[in-house]
């Protein structure tokens, strides 16, 4: 009776080397049967499946100890893990791209004489700033903890301050404004439980939802299995360049400080196809003056709760978003829906 495949045969079948297989055996990732007499290893079909999983995960950059954990004591499934790994690789890829672009600029500035141009250091400083900003975002609001009750909470009317006033109106407005055809792709950033993204499904549009919160993504997937969910960040979208027709976002951008918002707009533009559209419905003021006016009216009404809520987050300055988008080749429309809720629609002209 055949005991199983021998190491050479396995190596050939999986397009690897006997040495690599022995390495994973030493690390305790695989334990083929051993013939006690001649010390030959015999691999079963199950060993082969496990080994090909190990090789595949290594190929996409998963560490050996993490693979062992995933296979032996899984706390999350392999697809969930891959979702995280993809977002990590995108972050690294974007960081590398920033570095390469800086090198390009440095090379352009450098002449054959050995004195470095002054702005060489400025370029390096700009790069280090960019790296810092991309890494500095923290979830202060515990969105994982909010996921289960999020949909109930948005329906609640706040007693003195209703942050979700106009929620349904703005989501509907985004859906009506974005022009998409069957088979197009729409990216919803900060998708949460999927309320905005799901509005595009009946149009036969492919919806990808990105969120930094794994729990929100799980809830979204349970409600709308057709939505493809990807773990990721506004500042390093897990999406290839020029691959979507539209980017939408509701009630998410105000979790980023203003300097991060502009990087987020840059990321949205990176993933858009030519002629693509961006539509944002979020907590925002028309401009700085409008913000002062709204805050001062809450002060007069002695509504400290409203002031605290506003100051706890980063409500956008609509004029800054419009200015950035117009400067970067978009035709822009804007509207203020109520004191704290605004809407910006932009289409790439080209
Ligand atoms: C208030 S919820 C809004 C959810 C949904 N868009 C809606 O309109 O109901 C904000 C969502 O944005 C996500 N979010 C906040 N900051 C983010 C960031 N920097 N990158 C990715 N997602 C983010 C949160 O995890 C959360 O799911």
Automatic annotation (TrEMBL):
Record SUPFAM superfamilies: Putative DNA-binding domain, S-adenosyl-L-methionine-dependent methyltransferases
Record Pfam families: MerR_1, Methyltransf_25
Gene Ontology terms, MF aspect: DNA binding; DNA-binding transcription factor activity
Every HTH merR-type domain range: 4-73
PROSITE patterns on file: HTH_MERR_2 (PS50937)
Keywords of this entry: DNA-binding, Repressor, Transcription, Transcription regulation
SMART domains in UniProt: HTH_MERR (SM00422)
Transmembrane segments: none
Alphabetized InterPro entries for the sequence: DNA-bd_dom_put_sf, MerR-type_HTH_dom, MerR_fam, Methyltransf_25, SAM-dependent_MTases_sf
Protein name, UniProt field: MerR family transcriptional regulator
Organism the protein comes from: Ornithinibacillus caprae
